[in-house]
Design goal:
alpha/beta, 293 residues, two-stranded antiparallel ribbon
Length: 293
């Protein structure tokens, strides 16, 4: 692909790369590929089920306060080692990958660099995460807010990762993950895979069932999840990140709907001052979870 053609594709991708806001694309030869915005913002009709939960709203505000105070110690400068290790067998046969509660993770750009990946969709309730990702986007080019895509429910940011002969769209939905619907994704389709390294461990334990329900409605049958959790004694230290042992993962991802496979169970040094007392007593688990067809 020529440099001029590549730059035209990057410019087009960066201008409209936001998932769910009426973004549609057609694949084909690079010269005929196009992206265009529909006049209909499909996510504008997405509303929370039932009444708003004051405790949940307070929890969302707590994460916004952490970002405002720059207390983002969970952020890593390199792609997560377990993502690099297990992505090939768990995620990389998928064209569209969802990253819940993504923050400003460099994993978004890393996933976009992998062959075959066409769309990476990050979701976070705190817009400051998107702002900071734009300041240091790594391989993502043209990452910016798309003001025309902002509604009362969600905001949209987008950019692209350019590979040798392809472009991956990197989309960032700003809003409450628990409101997410398949209508928020390209052509109203469910995603094919989920990378969860900091979502389930971050949410309040009382929201875990609703979290799995959201994953269920957004992930297509046969889709895969690469999940990372921690195990430790929460009588000594409280989360987040919360302790989620294997038995809890299997309780949430029930056998009638999901196949759960433990990939690894290894000691983990928790580099967090709150965990000093038990820093050598933490285990990190990786799971491959497949939604049954």
């Amino acid at each position: 692909m020529s440099l001029a053609r590549t730059m035209r594709r990057v410019a087009s991708a960066a201008a409209v790369a936001a998932v769910g806001c009426g973004l549609y694309y057609r694949t084909g030869a690079p010269s005929s590929a196009f992206l265009s915005l529909s006049t209909k913002a499909t996510f504008a009709t997405c509303e929370p089920a039932g009444n708003s939960d004051p405790a949940h709203e307070q929890n969302l505000q707590g994460w916004a306060d952490r970002w405002a105070a720059k207390r983002t110690g969970w952020h890593q400068q390199e792609p997560h080692p377990l993502l690099v290790k297990y992505a090939k067998e768990s995620l990389l046969s998928s064209k569209t990958i969802l990253v819940p509660l993504c923050g400003k993770t460099v994993d978004l750009g890393w996933l976009g660099q992998q062959n075959g990946v066409e769309n990476v969709v990050g979701v976070d309730c705190v817009e400051q995460a998107a702002v900071e990702l734009a300041e240091n986007p790594g391989p993502i080019v043209g990452f910016q807010e798309i003001p025309a895509l902002k509604t009362t429910a969600f905001g949209g940011w987008g950019g692209a990762v350019v590979r040798d002969a392809a472009v991956s769209i990197i989309s960032f939905i700003v809003g409450d993950f628990f409101m997410l619907q398949p209508a928020n994704f390209n052509d109203n389709k469910q995603v094919e895979a989920v990378w969860d390294r900091a979502a389930m461990v971050a949410i309040d334990p009382s929201m875990r069932e609703k979290y799995v329900e959201t994953i269920d409605r957004c992930l297509q049958p046969g889709g895969r999840i690469l999940l990372v959790t921690f195990e430790y004694d929460q009588d000594k230290v409280s989360g987040p990140p919360h302790s989620i042992p294997e038995a809890e993962v299997r309780r949430l991802y029930t056998e009638d709907k999901w196949d759960v496979k433990l990939l690894s169970h290894e000691p983990f040094i928790m580099d967090n001052p709150r965990f000093t007392e038990i820093k050598n007593d933490v285990v990190e688990n990786a799971f491959l979870i497949r939604k049954k067809k």
